[in-house]
Amino acid sequence: MKNFLNYQTSEYDCAPVALINGIRYLFQREMIKAELVKTIPTLTNDCISDDGKHRLKGTSPAAMKSTVNWINHFAMETGFPIQAAFYHNEAVDYTIGGKMEEILNHGGVIITHVWLEVDHYVSVISIDENHVYLFDPYYEELGTKECQVLVDTPGVILDFDHPKSYNRIIDRPRFLTGGHDYYNLGFTNERVAVALINKEVTSTNVL
């Protein structure tokens, strides 16, 4: 059975939640190893706030890369059929025919850095010519002022009818924008993505 995807517990754990959501999307609950769920949060949330307090500013690209290395080592040691890959800067290519589209079209999931007023991570599930379908782990409740801002944002659709796959539909031009508005990828030198595949479904050659 596939699980519902999860929301953040705090303001800062979007990256580990998005990574685990990628695993929840790709694998049946009965297959998922507890060590994955236990270890991924300990490898992320590494950033330090301006006042020096630890784990108050989210997850760095270096931690995402290190987590990818750990996932691949875990897969090699245990035989769990997952493979991960780290992409950054211009390699995070969501243009039509680009690498990210290829991975998604072959059944992969991409945990992608976007902007949501601050640095943020979401799980991109699928893509078509006009839209990007993603699960945002930052919960917004309908009827609140914060949620209404998203409802009123052009090119952003809130969707709560697919809790096992996506809750946002973003216009592709908005997503590709090199700015800091809602669900922009940001400028090229800010872009970070982690691709996950189920090797029983997708060839590792796609990564």
Please, could you describe this protein's structure?
With 207 residues, the chain is an alpha+beta fold. The chain has a single domain (14-200), classed as Cathepsin B, Chain A. The chain contains 6 helices and 7 strands; from the N terminus they run H-H-H-E-H-E-E-E-H-E-E-H-E. The protein has helices spanning 14-26, 34-43, 61-78, 99-105, 145-151, 172-176; strands at 82-88, 109-115, 119-127, 131-135, 156-158, 168-171, 192-198. It has a 7-stranded antiparallel β-sheet with strand order 1-7-2-3-4-6-5. A hairpin with a 3-residue loop joins strand 3 and strand 4. It is globular, with a radius of gyration of 16 Å. 35% of the residues are buried. The model has no long low-confidence stretch (mean pLDDT 95).
Shape: globular
| Total count of strands | 7
Write down the CATH class.
Answer: Alpha Beta
Strand order of the largest sheet: 1-7-2-3-4-6-5
Number of continuous helical runs: 6
- Average pLDDT rating: 95
* CATH third-tier fold name: Cathepsin B, Chain A
CATH architectural label: Alpha-Beta Complex
Largest sheet composition:
7 strands, antiparallel
What is the helical fraction, as a range of percent? 25-40%
SSE arrangement, N to C: HHHEHEEEHEEHE
Low-confidence stretches: none
Radius of gyration: 16 Å
Question: β content, as a range?
Answer: 15-25%
- Oligomeric status: single chain
